[in-house]
Design brief:
Elements lengths: L25 H11 L7 E5 L5 H8 L4 E6 L2 H14 L5 E5 L2 H10 L4 E6 L8 H10 L3 E12 L13 E5 L2 E8 L1
Parallel strand pairs: 1-2, 1-4, 2-3, 4-5
Antiparallel strand pairs: 5-7, 6-7
């Protein structure tokens, strides 16, 4: 696992052990950042269900102003912190060991609004709609922000109530992009 572009390009990230974390493939990562383009520069990037932190670190490498990493696993939090240290991005990051829904509520209390929110919850738990609804309810997405969801491609029904601007397939994974005015 590595950073694929930007200031930390080609730096290796520590990969998780076991099957609890599904690292995002380079192809999907490249596609994601191709879709969002320069919107990442200077952005506040929220990485929910962050796992190893690879997506948020990629955002920082490509010029995000700040990244907030949220994961409920202690192992993932330690991995994220180690990867931030390896890449030199610790000062531009906040790492929260928390359930995603509690983190959303906490960010709202702190009046934090993310420009780009990436979520990749465990596919089997079917959390996409619940998490997106909480993001909207607690108003933690900035005007003109994007929510990017990585999901099993054959599971797209959850996206019907939202104004989807793009859905792409990468093997068995899908990316869905939802804009917010």
């Amino acid at each position: 696992m590595r950073v694929i572009a930007g200031s930390a390009r080609k730096m290796r990230l520590k990969a998780p052990r076991g099957n609890d974390i599904r690292p995002t493939a380079d192809q999907v990562k490249e596609a994601l950042f191709s879709i969002i383009g320069n919107r990442v520069v200077g952005a506040i990037f929220l990485d929910l269900f962050a796992g190893s932190g690879a997506i948020g670190i990629e955002a920082l490498s490509r010029g995000a102003g700040k990244a907030i990493f949220v994961d409920s696993s202690r192992q993932s939090i330690l991995l994220i912190k180690e990867n931030l240290s390896r890449t030199g991005f610790s000062e531009k990051a906040s790492v929260l060991e928390s359930d995603a829904l509690q983190a959303i509520k906490g960010l709202s209390i702190k009046k934090i609004k993310a420009d780009l929110i990436y979520l990749d919850p465990p596919y089997a738990e079917k959390l996409n709609t619940l998490v997106i609804d909480k993001i909207i309810e607690h108003a933690i997405i900035a005007n003109n922000g994007l929510i990017i969801v990585e999901h099993a491609y054959d599971d797209q029904d959850w996206a019907q109530p939202y104004p989807v601007i793009k859905q792409k397939k990468y093997g068995r994974k899908g990316l869905t992009i939802i804009p917010f005015p």
